[in-house]
Structures are given as C-alpha cells and as structure tokens.
C-alpha cells in the first residue's frame, strides 16, 4: 500500500495536468461559434430625457475596454427621480447584429439596479415601447428590463439595431455607467468582390447591399436580423447571388440549403411555399455554376429529381401550373393573376434548370420528360396583370420576349410597383432587354431612396412614395414629418415590425457585378465571360471571387463610347471570348 499510494497520486496529478493543458473539453452535444464579437463605442448621444438628471453623458462616447475599475474616470451618472425616469438614446453609426455590453461603476448600496433597454433599427423604433405600438419582441427581444451589477458588467441582447435607449427604472437610486458598447456579432470574412465607378451613389448602393447580406450570414443565412431570423429558402436566392459576387463559396449557403432539405420531407413544400421549393433547386444550380462542387450537388440529386417529379404533377392538361402554397412576394399577393403568371414562369425556369442538372449529374433519362413539361407549360402564357414582378419572370423564363416586357410593363413609371425582393428580377429582365441604363436609374432612385432616408442596410419593403415629406430614420421624429418606419409597412411588416435589414433586398450588388462589371461565371466555375455594360458611366472597376481566386477588371469608356478593358485573372480561370 505504501508503494501503490504515491503511484496513484502521481498518476492523478499527471492526468490533471494533461486535462488542464488541453483546456475545456468539447461535449459531444456542443457546437462552436466561429463568429466574431466586436465591441463598438457609440458615436452620438441622440437624446437626453433631462440633462439635470444625467451627468457626463459624453463619457459614454469615449473608447472603453469593457473592464470595470475603481477609479471611475468619465463616469456617466443617472439620478433617479420621483418624476421622470432619466434616459438617453445612443447611436452606434450603422445597423449591427448583436446586443449591448453595459459596464458599471461604484454606486451607493452595491445592490443591482434596474434599467430598461430598448433597441431600434430607427430612432423612432428605439424610442417606442412594445406595448401600445407596432413594435414587437418577436424573433428577437428588442425591449427588456435588465438588472445591472455594481462595479461589473452585463452583456444582453441578440437582435438587429443601430440605436439603443437606456432608461433608469429605480426612482431612488443613482446609476453610474462607465461604458455602454454595442456587441457586433458577425462572420469575419473578407469582401473579395468589389465595385467602384465614377458614380458614388451606385458605389454606395453596392456596398450597402453587400453589408446587408453580410449581417444576415449568421449561424445560417437569415432573411432579417431583427425579424425573420429564419432560413426562408426563396428569399435566399438574391442573397446567394450577392454571396457569390462578394464573399465566394461561404459555408453558410450549403449549410442553409441542407437544413431546409433535412426538415422538409416530400411531398411537403419548403417553408410551406411551392415557389420556395423551386427556388431551392435554382439555388443549387447557381451554387454549382459558380464553384463547381459536384460532390455537394450529388449529395442532393435524389431529392432534386424527386422534387422535380412532384412539380410535374402540378401541371394540368392545358399547361397551367396548379401549385399550392402560392406566393411570389408580399406586394404581389393580392394580384392572383400575377401570382399565376409568376408561378407559371418559375415552373418553366425550374425544368430548364432540371435539364441542365440532368446533364451535369449524368441522368439523361430525365431530359426528354423535362422538355415535354416545358413545351406544355409554354402553351399557356398568362397575363401579368400589370405586375412588374410577374412580368419580369415571364421575360426571364422566355414565356415573353424581354424587350416586349420592358416596353409594356417595366419601363413605364419604372419605380412604381418595384419590391425590394423581386426588384432584382425586374433588373435582370431589363438587362435581358438591353435596357441597362434604365435599370441603373431604378437602382439609383429606388434603392438610393432608402439611403436618402438614412438607411445603412436595405429594407424588407420600400415604396418611393414613402419618401414624400418623410423624416430620416437616423433622426428624432419631427412634427409635420412622416415617421417612415412607424407609419408605413404592410402585410406582416406593419410599422416598427418592418425589418430594415433584409437580405432579399441586396439585388443591385450582384446585378452591378454581373452586368456593369460584366462578369458571369460558366462551366462550373472554370470559365468566365466578361461583357461590360457601362450605360452612362465613364469607368468602372472591381473584383469577383472565383474558385481559382479573385478576378479583377477595369473598364474605361472613351469619348466615342468605346470600352477598353484590363483583366487580371487568377491562374486556371479561362476567359471566354464572344
């Protein structure tokens, strides 16, 4: 025993040292978060409830370190009152995904103090209560009562916001705040794609679209970071086009596509919407075309072909689609004729894609069947009933000539009837018609209209008429001015429930890269065609991620309208000629 006991003690000590050296052991039921947490100092104090109850608020604008200390320099003090609760509103400069870090000083009593925190994508939303307004705590908590510690810190929240209102709730207490920082949570990934031209408005729109999608690239590819923090696979299509143009083959796309397939057993429709199952197939095809990952595509081939068979069952003998779960985008929803025209177009598009997938996956037995479905569908061409979204899909599918669609519907009152989601397909159809300048004008006016109202990300929905006599979202509401966030919105996004960071609105980013820079990827990512359309621009330059590396181009137009092009292509990438 005298020999064994020291041996056991030494063995236990060595084992303990090994475990300590290895750090925390991952559980088989855990997963790691690879996103970055960045702490952002507020840029402005937008509002104070009562300057006599709040001292040294400017101290909150000084860069901090997240650490409470005993010295207490530049402390902001809030004094409770039996009358008004002291409160202030912070501006962090741009839309963020994440929460708040509150660092406190030494206040009397050492007992925790209660505050109310309200987050907002606009100033008006941050100044609103959940009760008695259109503001909500759905999907993400944007208003909460929080107990903050004495001489410590607390981190709270998981939402989308730019503004934060802090209100002291305890009437008889004095709160000392060292710091209030935003916690920005995001994927730390490079912007491989870029776009610069002599038009700063277009440059800004490209950047804002890229940033909007970047914020939605969280654990999965979401639709919105405040509301709709879900994988809506149809809404993903414009986002995926932006990701392929800016970030390259990020894992968030296949991860999200896999999730939707895993939770959707046929014959159910993805997200309960038939068109979203169609978009899933179209995205699979786009992802392969961009990066050529045949093994990933093969993983889904059984589901793809079964889904295509299910879609074939939804064509009647007259060539009309008979899909259930009928939806294109919200503004089109009341227009049943337009919804039919859009779904008819999507059915043609998915079987056109099905033929290409059958060739790629070496399943030629499907090709004849899919072609017969296309021929049958093309025997019935619905009227879009003056709806731009549906008309655009008619052009993209080939059911109508693009020039006719552009002349008859898209170019008339061009900013009316455009939605942030299907606006991307309107732009695509106008490009097919050769109307690049008209499409660029819509980008400047429609998407630029959101920037004019203070947007730093693009919105779930927008109507250019909203801008009339409207206040900016980054300013306090003014008497006589329209609160564009609180007073507008429709369907499921009325008022402050309206998301001001929605990935489906990023269409101009990929459109400008594809059509103005003129970059389109072919042959499973092995080749690229460069066909620029500068419209009224004098020059444009930028980059585009490919499977071989980053492609860079610059186009310059001379006084006679001729374009000269400089290309820097990564090794292995083939440049296709006309």
Automatic annotation (TrEMBL):
InterPro entries in alphabetical order: 6-hairpin_glycosidase_sf (IPR008928), 6hp_glycosidase-like_sf (IPR012341), Bac_rhamnosid6H (IPR035396)
Signal peptide: 1-21
Keyword annotations from UniProtKB, A to Z: Signal
GO biological process entries: carbohydrate metabolic process
Entry-linked Pfam families: Bac_rhamnosid6H (PF17389)
Domain of life: Bacteria
Protein name: Alpha-L-rhamnosidase six-hairpin glycosidase domain-containing protein
PANTHER family: ALPHA-L-RHAMNOSIDASE C-TERMINAL DOMAIN-CONTAINING PROTEIN, C, PUTATIVE (AFU_ORTHOLOGUE AFUA_3G02880)-RELATED
All copies of domain Alpha-L-rhamnosidase six-hairpin glycosidase, residue ranges: 192-378
Gene3D superfamilies membership: 1.50.10.10, Maltose phosphorylase, domain 3 (2.60.420.10)
């Amino acid at each position: 025993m005298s020999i064994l006991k020291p041996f056991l003690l030494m063995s236990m000590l060595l084992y303990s040292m090994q475990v300590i050296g290895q750090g925390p052991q991952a559980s088989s039921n855990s997963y790691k978060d690879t996103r970055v947490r960045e702490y952002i100092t507020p840029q402005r104090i937008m509002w104070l409830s009562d300057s006599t109850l709040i001292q040294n608020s400017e101290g909150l604008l000084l860069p901090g370190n997240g650490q409470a200390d005993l010295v207490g320099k530049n402390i902001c003090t809030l004094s409770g009152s039996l009358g008004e609760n002291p409160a202030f509103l912070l501006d962090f400069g741009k839309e963020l995904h994440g929460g708040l870090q509150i660092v406190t000083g030494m206040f009397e009593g050492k007992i925790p103090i209660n505050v109310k925190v309200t987050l907002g994508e606009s100033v008006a939303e941050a100044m609103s209560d959940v009760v008695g307004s259109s503001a909500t705590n759905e999907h993400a908590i944007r208003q909460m009562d929080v107990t903050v510690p004495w001489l410590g810190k607390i981190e709270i929240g998981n939402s989308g916001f730019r503004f934060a209102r802090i209100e002291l709730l305890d009437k008889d207490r004095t709160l000392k705040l060292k710091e209030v920082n935003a916690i920005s949570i995001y994927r730390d990934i490079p912007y491989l794609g870029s776009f610069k031209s002599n038009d700063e408005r277009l440059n800004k729109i490209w950047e804002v679209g890229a940033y909007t999608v970047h914020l939605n690239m969280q654990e999965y590819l979401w639709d919105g970071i405040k509301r709709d923090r879900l994988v809506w696979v149809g809404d993903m299509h414009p986002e995926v086009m932006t990701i392929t143009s800016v970030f390259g083959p990020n894992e968030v796309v296949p991860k999200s596509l896999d999730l939707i397939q895993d939770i959707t057993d046929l014959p159910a429709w993805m997200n309960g919407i038939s068109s979203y199952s169609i978009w899933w197939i179209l995205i699979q095809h786009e992802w392969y075309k961009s990066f050529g990952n045949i093994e990933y595509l093969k993983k889904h081939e059984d589901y793809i072909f079964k889904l295509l068979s299910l879609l074939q069952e939804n064509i009647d003998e007259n060539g009309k689609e008979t899909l259930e779960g009928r939806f294109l985008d919200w503004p089109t929803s009341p227009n049943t004729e337009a919804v039919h025209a859009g779904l008819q177009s999507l059915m043609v598009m998915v079987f056109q894609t099905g033929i290409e997938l059958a060739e790629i996956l070496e399943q030629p037995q499907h090709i004849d069947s899919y072609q017969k479905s296309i021929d049958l569908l093309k025997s019935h061409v619905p009227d879009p009933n003056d709806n731009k979204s549906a008309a655009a899909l008619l052009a993209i599918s080939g059911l109508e000539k693009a020039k006719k669609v552009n002349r008859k519907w898209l170019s008339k009152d061009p900013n009316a009837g455009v939605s942030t989601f299907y606006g991307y397909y309107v732009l695509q159809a106008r490009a097919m018609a050769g109307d690049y300048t008209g499409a660029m004008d819509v980008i400047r006016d429609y998407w630029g209209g959101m920037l004019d109202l203070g947007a730093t990300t693009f919105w779930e929905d927008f109507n250019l008429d909203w801008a009339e006599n409207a206040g900016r979202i980054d300013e306090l509401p003014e008497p006589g001015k329209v609160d564009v966030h609180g007073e507008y919105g429709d369907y499921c996004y009325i008022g402050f429930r309206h998301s001001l960071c929605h990935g489906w609105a990023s269409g101009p980013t990929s459109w400008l890269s594809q059509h103005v820079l003129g970059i389109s990827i072919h042959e499973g990512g092995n080749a690229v065609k460069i066909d620029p359309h500068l419209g009224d621009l004098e020059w444009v330059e930028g980059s585009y991620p490919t499977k071989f590396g980053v492609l860079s181009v610059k186009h310059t137009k001379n006084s006679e309208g001729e374009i000269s092009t400089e290309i820097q292509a990564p090794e292995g990438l083939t440049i296709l000629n006309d």
